[in-house]
Amino acid sequence: MEGSRAGHGGGAAAPAASLLVGVMGHVDHGKTALVRALTGTDTDRLREEKARGISIALGFALLRAGGAEIDLVDMPGHERFVRTMIAGASGIEAALIVVSAAEGVRRQTREHLEIAGLLGLCRGVVAVAQCDRATEEAAAAAGAEALSCARACGFGPMEVVRTSALAGEGLEALAAALARLAHAAPPRAEHGLFQLPLDRAFALPGIGPVATGTLRRGRLAAGEEAELLPGGCRVRLRSLQMHGRAVAAAGPGRRVAAGLRGVGLAALRRGRVLATPGAAREAAWLDVRLSLLASAPRPLGNGAVLRLLTGTQEASARLRLPGGGALPPGGTVLAQLLCVPPVAAMAGDGFVLRRPSPPLTVGGGTILDLPPAPRRPRAQAAAEPRLRAAAGGDWAGATRLLLRELGLAGAAPPALAPRLGHAPARLRAWALEGGARALPDGTLVDGEAWRSGLAALRGALAAFHAARPMEPGMRPEALLAALPRGAAAPVAGALLGALLAEGAAARAAGGLIRAASHDPARALGGDDRALVQAMEALFREAGLAPPDTAAAVAGDPRRLQALRLLLGSGVLVRATDRVQGRSLLFHREALAQAQRRIAEALAGPEGFAAREAGALLGISRKFSIPLLEHLDAIRFTRRVGDRRFVQAAEAPGAASARP
Q1: How buried is residue 641: exposed, middle or buried, by Cβ count under 10 Å (0-12/13-18/19+)?
Q2: Secondary structure letter of residue 635 according to DSSP
Q3: I need a surface site. Which of 377, 417, 536, 588 has the fewest CB within 10 A?
């Protein structure tokens, strides 16, 4: 798919190290010639490039040297093609800074170095090119100037190698320096998610659509599923190649060509992203750490509109600074960007900002979060500790702080992945290490928020019982309304379940919830206790012909509370005639007596009709039908057509204790 001829080494064995190197420098300083001399690959692949003698598109070549595989990305040096250079910077780990021995550092050299610094690069090699055209003193001065500029942009110590592509001078020394850089590279951050910004697409016979790009993070494996963004289309990676050879997998920082299944070529345009399903998302608002270059011509004011470049995407971005004001040259701030169109990204991605006219790179930094909406000042202040943790690379701390912000809304790890840039399993582990609570459905809830939620429910029950001592309990929905605003329904349900499981609450009759320590009878004052006793006596004496509930209450709220207490404690039992739609309250002693008499007189194999039970008990249909339906409900009897049968498994006294 994409190929090159390897130079300075060879062999098919897996390399001990690999490195993605961006070849940077001013136009006409010999970057492409140097890459061709090192690798044998001509990265000027377009007819226009060859005619004009400058690189327009990104060029790619593979250098094998010293047991390392080094992917070289030849970046255009002409100012008009800086956008292409920025796209190539996605995922690079080091820079090969090419500076002409005769001309020294020029404008595009500086801009390339500034962009590299904005994207976090700090390692590289300086190649002083075209040494056959300059004196030794000029070559030494050019190398020293390049080192000085690189240090100003955040680079550390670097080797300087004098070269001439035309004369073949210094090529082996440069290859060896790049190999040392590859072997000394720090371990790559493992996010557990892959991200491949697409820079080119084409179709091949027998393979179909092919997309190429530089793997920004994570590992790709042939056969796995990916998500194509924007749009969210799912595709399958049918095959992978690196520099013309088929591979089963590719690691971060490698040039990859992926044969895809499940998508047409028209959808694989530049600026789209292949990512782990669910790991990236389209976002209009970005929380960022933004640095303004010291070389920027003026401060960057709140509301400024710039061009944002991240990966191979480009969008308009309006700057929102905390508290308004302006960011001075050389300054760094936590800010928000409003992007049009939205960009497909994940936390941890680098970006660059350019002024549209006259075109100039002015700043850049790191995407820290993809919030679903802009924040009000108070919410933005609450998010600042988390964003600072993310800006410092403490993603474990950022995970815990985000859960704290979410409170009882909670979140499942897959929903957190785009906002934190790490795999769900890792986010879950970090959250649990920080004391988060994991619910059965996978939702994570901050530990302190969970404890506060339980305390709020306990407090609501205590206040309810204090205000209404004769009430048996609260309706569950009324109890859950005591939770802070924004509590998710699954989290609220889990809190209620935990309250019951820990024994702090119990269920009362009718699905009500009461505090486990609450005993309505003991909580009553003298007058209330007398009223409850009187109401109970009224229904006990009425037996199987109880009074109408409304008549018993007689519009008195205290009598209604007394009835509810008797129902909640099981002293009174509600029985309903579903056909007539009316309910009666029976005293439990009357129900137990009815069960005993029916079991003694009507338990034969032939069963009994409702009128027979009414005659036996001496009550009319008004009372017998609700009574029998209640006995059916508690499975003391079983109805078959117009007859009922006493359940053989039920002893006459066993069901009598049921409310």
Answers
A1: exposed
A2: T
A3: 377
| CA 307 – CA 513 distance, rounded (Å) | 57
pLDDT tens track for 419-458: 999 999 999 999 999 999 999 999 999 999 999 999 999 9
What does the alpha-carbon distance between residue 472 and residue 567 come to, in Å, rounded to a whole number? 8
Chain-centroid distance of CA 486 in Å reads 18
Here the tokens at position 287 are 């929380």
To the nearest 10 degrees (0 to 180), the angle between helices 610-617 and 588-601 is 110
**CA–CA separation, 424 vs 346, rounded Å?**
13
**CA-based max dimension of the chain:** 125
The amino acid present at 174, given as its one-letter code, is L
How far CA 67 is from CA of 169, 175, 509, 636, in Å, comes to: 22, 11, 76, 83
Torsion angle, alpha carbons of 332, 336, 337, 338, to 10: -170
Please tell me the distance from the alpha carbon of residue 544 to that of residue 282, in angstroms, as a whole number. 68
Instruction: State the fold for domain 449-518.
Output: Arc Repressor Mutant, subunit A (1.10.10)
Q: Token digits for 534?
A: 């009187």
Instruction: Report the alpha-carbon distance of residue 318 to residue 353 in Å, rounded.
Output: 11
Using an 8 Å Cβ cutoff, are 76 and 22 in contact?
no
For residue 86, give the nearest of 363, 418, 309 by alpha carbon: 309
Of 180-189, 579-588, 595-604, the poorest mean pLDDT is in 180-189
Tokens standing for residue 46: 């377009």
Domain ranges of the chain: 17-183, 195-275, 281-374, 379-445, 449-518, 530-657
DSSP one-letter code for 14: P
Element (H, E) at 259: strand 255-261
Element housing 461 (H / E) = helix 447-467
Question: Cα separation of 469 and 523, whole Å?
Answer: 6
Q: Are 243 and 255 in contact (CB under 8 A)?
A: yes
Q: Do 5 and 41 contact (CB within 8 A), yes or no?
A: yes
Is 77 in contact with 54 (CB distance < 8 Å)?
yes
Which CATH number is 17-183's, of 1.25.40.10, 3.40.50.300, 3.20.20.370, 1.10.630.10?
3.40.50.300
Average pLDDT over every residue of 293-309? 93
Q: How confident is the model at residue 111 (pLDDT cuts 50, 70, 90)?
A: confident
Closest among 488, 294, 367 to 119, alpha carbons compared: 367
Q: Determine the residue type at 350.
A: G
The domain 281-374 is placed in CATH, from the list 3.90.226.10, 2.40.30.10, 2.40.420.20, 3.30.470.30, at 2.40.30.10
449-518 with 530-657: one CATH topology? yes
CATH 2.40.30.10 fits 195-275, yes or no: yes
Q: Which has the minimum average pLDDT: 56-60, 227-231, 536-540, 637-641?
A: 56-60
pLDDT tens digit sequence for 239-272: 998 877 899 998 887 888 899 999 999 999 888 9
The answer, yes or no, to whether the previous bond of 230 is cis (omega within 30 of 0) is yes
Tokens describing residue 431: 């959250």
Q: 112: part of which helix (H) or strand (E)?
A: helix 107-118
Tell me if residue 293 falls in helix, strand or coil. coil
